[in-house]
Specification:
This protein is an all-alpha fold and 134 residues long. Helices cover 70% and strands 0% of the residues. The protein has one domain: de novo design (two linked rop proteins), CATH 1.20.1440.
Length: 134
């Protein structure tokens, strides 16, 4: 038992799981948008840009989930940082896709808008966690 009367594997009362985090839910939206965006890319990009973009998109909510499941705020912050890196990678890949005319501007803009919203949410979460760890 911890000093708070809980066993080491028990969640703190009031603690939410990662599925309850709005930032994780927004990450799932971005994954779905990325899969839609890449659906009609050239077949020779299936194992190239399509795979990279989908992997980067899935990495965002995955890192949020893994970080939330960690036992320390410091670890959670590290995983938020990984999610931010994956998001920047995806944003770059969307730009490349647009430049190569693999997707229309409207679809790319939807993905970029979602990514921008997610970036702000991740930044706010990281700042909140950093204040908590001080």
């Amino acid at each position: 038992m911890t000093s708070q009367g809980q066993g080491p594997n028990e969640k703190k009362q009031g603690s939410k799981g990662y599925k309850d985090l709005l930032v994780w839910q927004k990450g799932i939206e971005l994954v779905k948008e990325t899969y839609k965006l890449t659906r009609d890319f050239p077949s020779d990009e299936k194992f190239g840009l399509v795979s990279q973009m989908r992997r980067a998109a899935v990495s965002v909510p995955s890192n949020i989930a893994e970080g939330q499941a960690r036992h320390t705020t410091k670890e959670f912050i590290q995983f938020i940082s990984h999610a931010e890196g994956s998001l920047a990678e995806l944003e770059t890949q969307v730009i490349v896709s647009t430049e190569l005319a693999y997707c229309d501007a409207q679809s790319a803009n939807r993905a970029q808008d979602l990514a921008g919203e997610l970036k702000r949410m991740l930044n706010a979460l990281r700042r909140t966690l950093e204040r908590k760890s001080d």
